[in-house]
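User: Hello, can you help with two protein structures?

Assistant: Certainly.
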Amino acid sequence: MLTESDSDLQEVLTLRFQGKEEDGTEIHELRAAHVAEVLTGLVGLSSDFARAGAFGDGPAGSEVLVRPAQEGSFIIEVLRVAQDLDPTTVAAYAAAGGMPTLGQIIWWATKSARAEPSGAEYLENGNVLVSWQDNTVQEIPQAAWRELNKRDRRRKKQLRQIMAPLSDQRVSSVEVEAVAPAEIEAGEAEAAFTLTRPDYNAVQPEDDITETSEIFDTEAQMSAIDFDDPTRWRVKTTDENRLATVEDDDFLGRVARGLAIRKSDIFNLKVREDTVEKNGRTRRTWTVLEVISHRRAASDDDDG
């Protein structure tokens, strides 16, 4: 584990959560689960961009440490401690306008969620001049720009974790302030900025949807029949009793003309099962494509 020492480069990132209690006093506590999410998001974001080379970290990499909480306000203060920075890399960043801080990474990432980039120009100094749809431009180091364009779902999750306290109606904003190590020059991106609920809403998780279909034949009984609505029939097999939509127009026509159906009647059906998995939840729907055959149950044979 990395420890603080005189040889380490230490970047300080401060997150100050602002808001009021119901009685109008300033908030002085946050939900423990939200604080845990903030730290998890910060570690994940820092690790991704460190691996991408955005901070110029050496072989030992960097680690995010938490400072003791301050009294009288709710402030989360962390250190990003880096070791073995290559002097050549630091010099290259300095020539290109400075090395990005974790705070600047958060700014660029939330910016990309609010305003999609409309253009990118690769500059001779190694940076990328990014034009945003809100008519602003920024220079971003290439390594950081490449990482910003990857893992969109993961990035939104990290930002949502960092801003998790904004889901609490008591919390109105989070002030972010980044102080670069004294040994290096920071980039020109915002060193201090404020994120509010619209920023939190902009990183809503995208629906993770998987859709599949399977067609099969099965024997079943019609446990419920709706003569007015073919989407409200119920199909009962030996294993399941499901709401189903009947799309066999020929069969529906016979029913409309007076086909007698008993609950005990057995149908040979061609069924399509549509499965939708959304955010970990599964929903299955049945559609009767064809009624292949229809017969009375054995116990009903004596009734004709």
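That covers the first. Now for the second protein you mentioned:
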Amino acid sequence: MSAESGEWVPLISHAPASAEVYQRVRSRIRNLQDLRKFGQGHKNLNDALPRAPVELRELEQQHFPSQSHASRLASMSDGDIDQEAEAARLWLLGMLEYRDRAMSREHELRMFRSAVEKQENGRQEDWSDLERLYMTLTDSNLVSPEARLRAAFMVVFHLNYAERQEHVSKAGAELIERLQRSSGMDAELFETRENIFERTQSTNVDHFACAIPLSLLTDTANNASIVDDNAGCCPICQNPYTSLIDRPIEELLADYPVRIKHCGHIVGKACLEQWMRTPKIEEAKYPHRTCPLCRIKIEGVESPPVPTELLGHLKTNRRAMETVRELTYGYDMDREERLSTISACMSEEIACTQLLSEIRWIESEKKDVGMLEDKLASLEKERWAWGFRGDGIWAKLREEWMNSGVVRRG
């Protein structure tokens, strides 16, 4: 188990929605640090877990009292308890090693925030198995890291995680094995998957808005899928999309024009993301956000279809399947989040390529050219993580996604 003390305490910039939630998340992170320190002080954590059937029955009664929960161990023989307990021990200790290696600080914050907010609202029954496990491992009502570890072991045993979550354990074991014999290429792939996960930590519009070639902004009259009445400027902030005189290249990339697929309107991406973060007015009456330029709903509606060939690729390409599995079990990313990160990669690649073509031959912009080329190299690594080695199929799918589901309503 690793991680220095300060490294695992969230900075205030990562604070959740409320101060109370933030403090509770921070307390959980610190308790997790204590558990890691406890693990570092023991050659074998297995020795800290109970073994005798009578002790296991008492531990189950302590954490799952019979008046509230049906006992799993009451009807089991001592031999069956020994066998099931060993499976639970292997699952728990393997999972802890797996999560220590694969779970970043941002992932921990995300998981604890979700679990704490559910707890605040009296919705503990909605905890995922992972949330329930880690809320037990960090429960301040238990007096020591050893007590929390024993309680977590009983959660795994009583709820039969070893059987119900066997696929998670196998994925973790495979990852640990790969990390132990990792080459430079494996380490780079692991870092790239971390970067893919980071995409989910900010406001996401990539599932319904995609960058477009700059040439389309000058040909809106002949293109029924484009609505741009603002002469190459963002209609929200009024800044031009390509003027390096007005803004640095980083801002131009962040606010590159994207087309909202539900209506065809063009807006700067950063402005659209800000729009999605803006508090709703009369949320009870208007629960879903609309396009900032028209009343077409962009929230609470079905996302435009992802290319069928892309879905097939994710199910058949070996590297893509590995990435899907590790993002699913290592980072709790669901299907929509995974697809959205691919859409984001495609959209950002369009933006970088277009801006690069605008400034490549300007002698004074060599630094900006280098920045965009570095960004494209990073995006190429993401493509590789998804199993795309060349440009052919990827470029075809990117074009298909850019035009997928676009409706002009302006």
